[in-house]
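Predict both folds.
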Amino acid sequence: SGMVFAKGDPKIGALNDRLLVSKDLWPFGDQLRNKYEETKKLLLQVAGHKEILEGDPYLKQRLRLRHSPITTLNVFQAYTLKRIRDPNYKVKARPRISKESAEASKSADELIKL
């Protein structure tokens, strides 16, 4: 359903692949993400919509509001699992951001970048 595609985020799957899955299985994850996008396009075509949940703006807004916090938790989980599996793994330190930047809303895409 549209709800599955509204909640799904292939970029989180890709992050998990790169951090937690052996390289020889990466093509399988890529294949799954391609099928996800292909199925999403077909769902939109059948529904006659341009966007997921186009017919339910209330639900679309509710999911949009929870997207950034959920993405943050998913990214944190992936890095935590990586550190548990490989205690020598070091996360690249990034420069501190200003208070203004920290308070600004970051998009999910920005949070997923390695």
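Second protein follows, with its predicted structure tokens after the sequence.
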Amino acid sequence: MTHRITRPVVASDLKDAAAAISFALDYLQPHEPFEFLNEWREGKDLSPWIEAWEQDQEEARRMTHPEWMFS
């Protein structure tokens, strides 16, 4: 089951294994969870993943806006 994120995500939110796994499975592209979870396990900074996901969300919002036109 996918859960909708209702507040900004920060790297500290993903310190918990269940939260990291849920984020990976629910919000990343199908080819991304393996790399994401390996970085999580290695203790790497997950901020770039969150930033990329936020950018994807913003782009999706722009593309679904009624006045959006392909350029």
